[in-house]
Specification:
elongated, 3-stranded antiparallel beta sheet, DNA polymerase, domain 1, hpI Integrase, Chain A, single chain, alpha+beta
């Protein structure tokens, strides 16, 4: 190591006689200092840094102390920079995780800690109301599907932290999500008749249009007249779920319902707001005001607004529409999502299982003494009677 005036160059003790050793060097005309515990440690660090400078691999941020960030601060940054359509739910997830683990540093949260917290969420029950009846039954605070959504969002947040260098690992990757029960609830004709009988005609038209088009709630309430062509029978969705423009065909009944609306004269929205026609109608307010009370008065349980989308798909499948067409009408990204309705139309399974079946008639020519004739022989004619506990088998003599 080069020495200057009997001292090692680039190494100094400051303050003097304090035992605090520093490495000082210049990179691109700027001074850089690094603290060390001992003089020997300072010498070793100085030699390594000079070698990195000569090889052009020196990066000061490698030796600078890492600034950790809390989960609450990182959640806020992720939400501010989010461009997803589901930003309302993201804000809900942000509030929950900020409440649960907000002050914690990203690098401090472990996988085992998250697994235990996941189990506590599953066991948490709703508090008993003050004036609860004697028949009141305790219910879970969070369903398995809701807990999975919370952890899926936290995993997404940690993936962003990995890309930005704010974290070195994703603790949520080792957390196994709960299995979810897939339910496809749709309304029968009898339930639809009851619901229509208890709802106002204008409110029922929204429900009927949702079934006719199969649109999601946010898609239906965001329809604009400029994107609706009643002549060709198509509605254009510029930015639906999935981020790609979609064209939804309109049935004759859907076009009749749209022609009955008069909002085109005062608003660009098909369903304008009640107080401000220049804004779309609040879908949540409509659910609280008309749809959910209608379900209660009609005695319909286990249904939600998304049930109308299931009803639209189920009615078409039961009417004989193929699954590929249903996929295009509903705007599913892949056919696997549409396959949940396949059990409603068993024709394709029945036709497939009959192909190659042993039920096909085996024709055997039998020659008798007086005449020759053809007899139809079923495969069961070759069955060998069971012996002991052996199962029935097919004879090879046939």
């Amino acid at each position: 190591m080069a020495r200057k005036d009997g001292k090692d160059r680039g190494i100094l003790e400051w303050p003097p006689q304090s035992g605090n050793w520093w490495v000082r060097l210049y990179v691109n005309g700027r001074e850089k200092r690094f603290s060390c515990d001992t003089k020997s440690q300072a010498k070793a660090l100085y030699g390594r840094l000079k070698a990195d400078i000569r090889e052009r691999t020196f990066f000061p941020e490698k030796f600078a102390p890492r600034k950790d960030i809390t989960l609450r601060a990182w959640l806020t940054r992720c939400l501010d920079g989010s461009t997803n359509r589901n930003r309302v739910n993201e804000a809900l997830y942000n509030r929950r995780w900020s409440l649960w683990f907000g002050p914690r540093v990203l690098s401090e949260i472990t996988t085992d800690e998250l697994r235990q917290f996941q189990r506590r969420l599953q066991l948490k029950m709703r508090p008993r109301p003050t004036q609860a009846p004697k028949t009141w039954q305790p219910k879970r605070q969070w369903s398995d599907a809701t807990i999975n959504r919370f952890f899926a969002y936290l995993k997404h947040v940690y993936n962003l932290a990995l890309k930005d260098g704010k974290a070195t690992r994703n603790p949520v990757a080792g957390v196994k999500l709960f299995p979810e029960v897939s339910k496809t609830r749709f309304l029968s004709d009898e339930e639809l008749n009851r619901l229509r009988g208890v709802m106002d005609l204008k409110d029922w038209q929204l429900v009927a249009l949702a079934i006719e088009t199969g649109l999601r709630r946010e898609e239906l309430f965001a329809l604009r007249w400029e994107y609706t062509d009643l002549e060709t029978g198509f509605v254009t969705l510029p930015m639906p779920k999935g981020g790609k423009t979609r064209y939804v065909p309109l049935s004759e009944q859907a076009k009749t319902i749209l022609r009955s609306f008069e909002s085109w004269a005062r608003s660009p929205w098909i369903f304008p707001g009640l107080t401000n026609p220049m804004k779309p109608m609040d879908s949540r307010a409509f659910l609280r005001r008309a749809f959910e009370p209608g379900l209660r008065r009609a005695g319909i349980t286990g249904a939600s607004w998304h049930t109308l989308r299931h009803t639209a798909a189920s009615r078409r499948v039961m009417a004989g529409v193929d699954l590929v067409s249903v996929k295009e009408i509903l705007g599913h990204r892949n056919i696997q999502t549409t396959m949940r309705y396949s059990h409603l139309d068993p024709r394709h399974l029945r036709d497939a299982v009959n192909l190659g079946s042993l039920r096909e008639t085996v024709t055997k020519t039998v020659t008798g003494e007086r005449n020759t004739y053809e007899a139809s022989v079923e495969p069961t004619d070759f069955m060998v009677r069971p012996v002991g506990i052996e199962p029935t088998t097919l004879s090879l003599e046939g």
